[in-house]
């Protein structure tokens, strides 16, 4: 009996100390307008109970995310529902479901994306904010209570719509509402990292991706921007914020010079070694007790 209790206790400790856990996503809208978040689970991962909803300015909601979940989250803007057909559509980030729920459909670019793989390699969560598919609103991801990895906040708090080059700009009634990626705008393989440019050696930052990178140094700016844009954390919950810097800026914003920041990613082996030592110490103490 004592041995069975010990086994259960050890399993519980291993699950906690190695970061195998469910997470809570708290999604906050700090924009001055309504945002309709959309959620898409990755291949082989079950869809969450909700895949789309609305958040009024200042409103927030929390979701319980299961162990091992992977997927992406984004904000839809300028959404309307047809009073006759009840068809729900959004000017940016629309998922094409015609309803509030995205139901397994992803964002139509351009859209700012928060991407997650929870409890991935070595039990770490991997997360980023990506502008690879373009940009439609500011967004940040902030880990809470993490115990390993680098647990760095990341995202893009700048209003890129105001500073978007004319050839990438998406406008509605004269207002800039989104900023395309160069891949979407031109379809050139060198911008899309496809064809002969489908490797890290052949696909390099472009003039356009460098504009995004200058404004938002921690966000993904093109397909192979892993080194400065992939963050890791162990055992964290996450706060995803739309318009984290008190809302988009005015049309006078200009793209800033790149900040001198280190990348999100770093070797997490010290944290993993510490977790292993803790597990072994716990096993030893429990063995002595029993």
From TrEMBL:
<feature type="disulfide bond">
    <location>
        <begin position="164"/>
        <end position="179"/>
    </location>
</feature>
<keyword id="KW-0472">Membrane</keyword>
<feature type="disulfide bond">
    <location>
        <begin position="151"/>
        <end position="233"/>
    </location>
</feature>
<feature type="disulfide bond">
    <location>
        <begin position="183"/>
        <end position="192"/>
    </location>
</feature>
<keyword id="KW-0732">Signal</keyword>
<dbReference type="InterPro" id="IPR037176">
    <property type="entry name" value="Osmotin/thaumatin-like_sf"/>
</dbReference>
<keyword id="KW-1133">Transmembrane helix</keyword>
<protein>
    <submittedName>
        <fullName>Thaumatin domain-containing protein</fullName>
    </submittedName>
</protein>
<dbReference type="Pfam" id="PF00314">
    <property type="entry name" value="Thaumatin"/>
</dbReference>
<feature type="disulfide bond">
    <location>
        <begin position="95"/>
        <end position="102"/>
    </location>
</feature>
<keyword id="KW-0812">Transmembrane</keyword>
<feature type="signal peptide">
    <location>
        <begin position="1"/>
        <end position="22"/>
    </location>
</feature>
<feature type="transmembrane region" description="Helical">
    <location>
        <begin position="271"/>
        <end position="289"/>
    </location>
</feature>
<feature type="disulfide bond">
    <location>
        <begin position="156"/>
        <end position="216"/>
    </location>
</feature>
<keyword id="KW-1015">Disulfide bond</keyword>
<feature type="disulfide bond">
    <location>
        <begin position="193"/>
        <end position="203"/>
    </location>
</feature>
<comment type="similarity">
    <text>Belongs to the thaumatin family.</text>
</comment>
<dbReference type="InterPro" id="IPR001938">
    <property type="entry name" value="Thaumatin"/>
</dbReference>
<feature type="disulfide bond">
    <location>
        <begin position="31"/>
        <end position="243"/>
    </location>
</feature>
<feature type="disulfide bond">
    <location>
        <begin position="79"/>
        <end position="90"/>
    </location>
</feature>
